[in-house]
Structure formats: C-alpha cells, structure tokens
Design brief:
This protein has 292 residues and is an alpha/beta fold. The chain contains 10 helices and 13 strands. This is ABC transporter ATP-binding protein.
C-alpha cells in the first residue's frame, strides 16, 4: 500500500521553479529518506506533502487524499517534526505534551512518551530552560504522539549528541516495525544509510537518483584497498591503481575481485596489510551529484 504518492510535482516561486516534475512513493511501513543539496527543493516538497502549499502542477496524494484540500482530515493521521520548533517557552515538557493531548484526537501517555525520548527527569522543566537537543527530543515526542500511521521528520537529529541520535534511530526503527511509514530528511548521510529502505536525492529541483538503498549504493563502484609488495598483481575486473605499494581497486563486483586478490595473496604467501573492502557510501553519491 502506498501512503504517499507524488507524480509530476512542480512548484514555482514566481518565475523560479523550485520543484520540477518530481515523482516518488512512500509505502506503508517503510522509512523513505528524501535527501538533497542546498536549494534542491526538498523543503518545498515536504511543505506540499504536509498541505501547506498547493502544487503548480502534478499530483500529490497522502492516504489517497489531497493534502492541500484535505489537510484537516490528514492531520489526525500524520505526525510532523519540523526544523523550526513551535514550542512555548513558559510551559514545562510535561505541560507541553498535555496541551498537545487536548489539541489532537490521537491518544497517548505524556509520561510514557517522556520516557521514550529520555526526558522523564526534565518533565517539570520549562521549555526555555531545556537544551537545544532536549527541545528536539520534545519535538520528536509531539510528532509520534498517538503513533500516527505516517511520521514526517525534517532534520530530526540536528543538535543531538551521538547517544541521543542513536536512541532516536532506535525509536524510528521501532515505528517502522509496527507499521508506521516515515518520511525523513537529513543532512547526516550516515543516518539515511543506517535507517532508510528507499532513498531519493534531489538536486536542482529534480530527483537525480532514487531507489532502494542497495540500488542507489550500487550506482557507484565499491573500493578495495591494501598494502602490497612490489610484485606482479593478479588480473582483476575493476580499475586498479598502485601508488608506493598502496593498492586501490574500484570495482562493481567486489566479491569477485576480493576473491581473486585473496587467492593471489595465498598462492604467493603474501600478507595484505591494511586490507579494506567497502561498498560505496551515500556521501560519495551525494557529492558526485552535487558536482555534476
């Protein structure tokens, strides 16, 4: 089942085309990472999906509804964590959640959610006395209040320390396991690589790369590196370079080339120091798109 369907989406600010013919779908129970270079159009795309803007062209459906025309109906089924917090500084963390309980039809426990986001010990602290990372965790609690079937997270871990980031990742993964769909934007590419089932990368108003995480990563060659002695190397499928004993192999068949390299080393009693075999990363793909 598709929770979000975006087809031919276009949006303009005057003569400037911010989003140009964007297509993607988010399925039930998956984490979809929408990534993009600065000014790529991903924030505008999110605002359209959330119902804050009307497309200039194309079609957007969330649970089969038009988010702009049917925004009130969708709000009960969608949790949103925006980049900019809308928290009231004078209210405590607990009061903030209790206020939200009166504004939404979804039911939940304020105390339980504070525990989930590791804020139980700060329940009675005013929001303006919380750290930036604590406010982000409170924002996250509001987004997942009542476990809506769709959660939109816009740069959710900005300002969080590594431990808090890991805890939020685990909560997001639990949401997926229980059937929630998550649309995620992040500047932390390792975050997208750790969490996402599907990835789309925007650049200059368009989606340049999209697919499952494995499909996207396979677009770039893997890399094998090692220190080797000055002897004749085996024939490998990938592109081989050797610089002062440092071997680098750029390959699209890492298993085959790594097997041949290890077999060659074993036959010749050679020890491969600092051997490393790594798949391409989202960061490499992202940087390549930005330079194109």
């Amino acid at each position: 089942m598709n929770v979000i369907e975006v087809s031919g989406l276009t949006y303009r600010y005057g003569q400037f085309v911010a989003v140009a013919g964007v297509d993607f779908t988010v399925r039930q129970g998956e984490i979809f990472a929408l990534l993009g270079t600065n000014g790529a159009g991903k924030t505008t795309t999110l605002e359209i999906i959330e119902g804050f803007r009307k497309p200039a062209a194309g079609r957007v459906r969330v649970f089969g509804l038009d988010p702009y025309a049917d925004r009130p109906a969708l709000s009960a089924r969608t949790g949103v964590m925006s980049q900019q917090t809308g928290l009231i500084g004078e209210l405590t963390a607990l009061e903030t959640l209790n206020l939200w309980a009166g504004l939404t039809s979804r039911k939940d426990s304020a105390q339980a959610l504070l525990s989930t986001v590791e804020l139980s010990h700060r329940a009675n602290v005013p929001v303006d006395k919380l750290s930036g990372g604590e406010r982000r965790r409170l924002d996250f609690a509001l987004a997942i209040w009542g476990r809506p079937p769709l959660v939109i997270l816009d740069e959710p871990t900005t300002g969080l320390d590594p431990e808090s980031r890991q805890e939020l990742w685990e909560t997001v993964e639990h949401l997926r396991e229980t059937g929630t769909s998550v649309l995620l934007t992040t500047h932390y590419l390792e975050e997208a690589q750790a969490l996402a089932d599907h990835v789309a990368i925007m650049h200059e108003s368009r989606i340049q790369v999209a697919g499952t995480l494995s499909q996207v990563l396979s677009e770039q060659p893997a890399r094998i590196t090692a220190k080797v002695p000055d002897v004749e190397l085996p024939k490998l499928l990938g592109e081989v370079s050797l610089d002062n004993g440092q071997l680098t192999v750029q390959t699209r068949d890492m298993q085959a080339d790594l097997y041949e390299l290890l077999l060659w080393a074993d036959r010749n009693a050679i020890r491969l120091h600092d051997l490393n075999a790594t798949q391409a990363s989202l960061q490499e793909i992202f940087l390549a798109i930005g330079k194109a």
